[in-house]
Design brief:
The chain is α+β, with helices and mostly antiparallel strands. The protein is built from seven helices and 20 strands. A hairpin with a 2-residue loop joins strand 6 and strand 7. It starts with a strand and ends with a helix.
Length: 425
């Protein structure tokens, strides 16, 4: 038997060799138009802009591109005629080259599209098929070895350009349109994609391919921009972009909402798009003259240095209340934040709200010695709770605090209120 094993693949948008190693998945994304001069051996970047946004793929495949597959062989293959290929039940005829211990097959994507059940050389229909490669052994009558790839393509066009904004449950975004709402929220050298909304049937896309990530295209506001809308209007596929990964193994999916690498004090505006496993980017934020365009103010915000209790750097709590940003008290608050606030949506909301309103009050407190003393006194109970939570767990600490509060209330009623009542009788 001529055993075949995976070596390499080229001319694809993406390949998954880990989920099912014995049957790798080849992804081909058809979106946009390749720039002139593109050869037939490499994918192309169709996210090259123009004006506004368009469906695109940074590793797009196209009909005249060659899908090149290299397999290892355990024994010599005498002739190229000993190697055959089928796409599902249809024979397909690649260019075959035999090497020392390898066999190379080159398929035109147009042939793959044509041999699929959709049968279009223009590759304007989605493909889901098995590509089975068979190689005969070197001796007469020896068993043949096979290797199978699963091929999945996604075709995106202008019909998939924008999603229907879904800020509330009353909205009805198209099924398969991915994430369909966000609000830009400021952080320290970062922006949060807050209030993310999601369409039905997620993570499956309208093309039947699962979504992989979110893409945020952005532009900094410049003096020539009259307002947020002007900055949003400058965003194109060629603008700087940030990929935000999604964990689709849980429901609802989890997202690291941070867009990092930004400069404090600069206003940025964003357009969100959905990226599927083939690399196609589509269903963008509706803007400008698009139907259901969102308020540009929700797409723009200004990162600022965070000043306050939860800041990782210098904060008024550290310097005013405890004397140093390295004080153990400050570290206790940070440990509590990292363990019990940031992992949960309600905790993130609290932190974001704190970041939004704390700088103004922090500045006022830092100017008054009396205010510093009062703040320090008010923080000690919170510090006690934070340290106890880190030491024994949040719920145990909450139970102890609740029991202590009830005990003090009972003593207050008996010793204070009860004594006053008796004194009046």
């Amino acid at each position: 038997m001529a055993t075949l094993t995976y070596n390499s693949v080229g001319g694809v948008s993406n390949i998954d060799t880990t989920t099912t190693p014995t049957k790798p998945v080849i992804y081909g994304g058809f979106a946009g138009t390749c720039p002139s001069g593109t050869d037939s051996n490499s994918t192309c970047d169709t996210c090259q802009g123009g004006t506004g946004m368009a469906v695109c793929n940074k590793n797009a495949v196209y009909p005249s591109l060659y899908l090149t597959i290299v397999l290892n062989t355990s024994s010599t293959i005498a002739n190229t005629s000993d190697v055959t290929a089928k796409l599902d039940s249809n024979n397909i005829y690649p260019t075959i080259t035999l090497g020392s211990g390898t066999v190379t097959l080159k398929f035109l994507w147009s042939d793959i599209c044509a041999k699929s059940s959709n049968g279009s050389t223009a590759c304007d229909q989605n493909v889901t098929a098995d590509l089975v490669i068979t190689a005969a052994g070197s001796s007469s009558g020896s068993a043949a070895g096979t290797f199978t790839f699963h091929i999945v393509t996604s075709v995106a066009d202008s019909a998939d350009l924008t999603y229907i904004d879904c800020p509330t449950e009353n909205e009805t975004p198209a099924a398969g349109s991915g994430f369909c709402h966000f609000t830009a929220f400021p952080g320290d050298s970062k922006v949060y994609a807050d209030n993310l909304g999601i369409s039905d049937s997620y993570p499956t896309s309208s093309a039947g391919v699962d979504y992989k990530s979110l893409m945020f295209f952005y532009e900094p506001q410049i003096p020539a921009d009259a307002n947020d809308a002007a900055t949003v209007a400058r965003i194109t596929n060629k603008s700087p972009s940030f990929e935000m990964n999604i964990n689709n193994t849980v429901s609802p999916p989890t997202v690291d909402e941070r867009i990092t690498g930004l400069s404090n004090g600069t206003t940025y505006c964003f357009i969100m798009g959905n990226r599927d496993l083939t690399g196609n980017i589509y269903f963008f934020t509706p803007t400008g003259a698009a139907s259901g365009a969102v308020d540009p103010a929700t797409q723009c915000t200004t990162p600022e240095k965070v000043v306050g209790l939860l800041d990782d750097k210098h904060c008024f709590i550290a310097t005013a209340a405890f004397g140093s940003d390295m004080a153990p008290e400050v570290q206790s608050f940070r440990e509590f934040r990292n363990e019990y606030l940031l992992p949960y949506s309600w905790g993130k909301t609290f932190v974001k709200t704190y970041y939004k309103y704390s700088p103004k009050y922090a500045a006022l407190i830092s100017q008054s010695e009396t205010a510093k003393v009062l703040v320090r006194g008010a923080l000690w109970p919170l510090l006690f709770f934070a340290r106890m939570s880190v030491a024994i767990g949040f719920w145990y600490a909450l139970a102890i605090v609740a029991f202590g509060a009830l005990t003090l209330w009972g003593l207050y009623r008996r010793l204070i209120l009860g004594q006053n009542v008796r004194g009046e009788l």
